[in-house]
Amino acid sequence: MIQALSTVMRGCQHVTECMRPANRVWLWAAFGGSGVGVSEAAGGESVAPVSFDAYVIAEGGWSDSTRRLGFAKSVEIFKPVFGLVANLRYNPDDLKERNMRSQIHFVLSPDWPLSNCPIQAEFVEYLKGETHFFALVVSKKNHHKDQTDDYLEKMDPESRAAIPDEVIEHMRMASQQKGLLEMGVFRKGYASGQACLATDNVDMERLHQMVRDITQELGLPPTTEFFETNPVQLFDFSRRARCVDPVRVLCSAATSPAPSGPKVLSPAEFLAGGNGGVQALVLPVGDALQEPIWTQGLGINRGFHTAMNQAYACLLARETRTGDPLIAAVRESCAVHEAVWKMKWGEGHSGLAGSGSGYIGLKPFKEWDTQPRNRLPIR
Predict the structure, then answer these.
(1) What pLDDT score was predicted for residue 2?
(2) Nearest-CA neighbor of 76 among 284, 285, 282, 296?
(3) At 184, phi and psi to the nearest 5?
(4) Residue 85: which of 179, 215, 190, 192 has the closest Cα?
(5) Are 292 and 298 a contacting pair, CB within 8 Å?
(6) Peptide bond before 364: cis, by omega within 30 degrees of 0?
(7) What is the pLDDT of residue 77?
(8) What span, in angstroms and rounded, lies between the C-alpha atoms of 303 and 42?
(9) pLDDT given at position 22
């Protein structure tokens, strides 16, 4: 992987020139005085040109570069659900804090730790590091009705007697929990997650108090301070986007086979042929290529695989000796992207976040390298 990625920023006469005004970027690929204008631009101070063979985008799901370079995205819409993250300052001199251990709890497990704070969450995770880090997936509103008695009435007496009282109590808990709307964190409940998270719709005082209640139930002292950087954050997980195509090809201006200006080509346009000029690959990886959703895990495993997949496409672009190496790279990237998208990542046997992916055809780890067929169920 490292060897393949080392070709990204060396060895070719393609040139990028980055301008940095207010986070806007110029990207040019130039050769012999001709160039490829890739994104819109504004004036600003330029930096030294850097040669590259491929431009790898690893900016996260919000990637501005994928939008500017013309990547169309397919968006899935889910029921309103939100990620909640909190960071609190770790004081190693506090014995109670020092004795805390990383942990994760699922709402359907018997050790669910939240009894005083009624927030409806699928799981709660605590990681002890430089800070006390907490992560939950929480609902906008609780739509559950208590149907426990109806369920029990349908059972025969012997089966009913076999159910422990604590299990029955746990069954009733879902109807007693509250979403962010009932907790008063959201002032109004909108259909759009973005609208729910608008600054004037979030009661920060109630949000911080809710987080404080959660962290105390998990063992933190009430005096623990919020960390100064990103103390509490809410994320909208009611949508998930992925790039329809995993690759774009940059083409500089050309005089043959026909005069043409600089272009950014989709796989279909590039494979149709007739393209001149100097060419380079654009390859998104990780969340920029396919966003995860916390209710199906964090997506980090799939992110590593997509990085290795695109590194292999870079390798083909450099090492292919028969035919056009860029055509081989583009075809490989597209075929592997389709295969990865069809795999059921993060949908383990329990159906709970963090429960893994179950058996989805991944090869044994000892066989892994950048070649996708040594890792993934691809022919």
Answers:
(1) 33
(2) 296
(3) 85, 5
(4) 215
(5) yes
(6) no
(7) 82
(8) 32
(9) 29
Torsion of CA 31, 32, 36, 42, to 10 degrees: 110
Q: Which stretches of the chain score pLDDT less than 50?
A: 1-42, 350-353
Q: What is the pLDDT of residue 166?
A: 74
Q: What is the pLDDT of residue 27?
A: 38
CA dihedral sign of residues 315, 317, 319, 321: positive
* pTM exceeding 0.70: no
Instruction: At 134, list the tokens.
Output: 């907490």
In DSSP terms, which residues pair with 25 in a beta bridge? none
- Looking at the DSSP bridge assignments, the partners of residue 256 are none
Strands (E), 90-196: 103-106, 121-128, 131-139
Give pLDDT, residue 111.
Answer: 83
CA distance 9 to 21: 23
In angstroms, rounded to a whole number, what is the distance separating the alpha carbons of residues 156 and 164?
15
CB atoms within 10 A of CB 16: 22
- Inter-residue contact 193 to 239 (CB < 8 Å): yes
